[in-house]
Predict the structure.
Amino acid sequence: MADNQKKPTKITSKQIVAWIGIVLLLLLYVALLLTALFDKSSSGRLFWMCLYATIAVPILVWIYAWLYGKIKESRKDTTDEE
């Protein structure tokens, strides 16, 4: 294999969850924009929902990544002891 060829990288579950979080936030912002343009009655409630999601989604992604690391670490410890 030549030195300039890259090996394919494995996509981890952390990366998948991060991408899902990004897509979810983008969809919320698009929905907020469309609602603000076309439906004035519920745009305020949707704005607050998007504001909370902007804070909650990254926190949930971080918690998932942290828990996944802890579970993977504990499984590694139990297999090492056997």
Notes: The two ends are 38 Å apart (CA to CA). The CA atoms of residues 25 and 55 lie 10 Å apart.
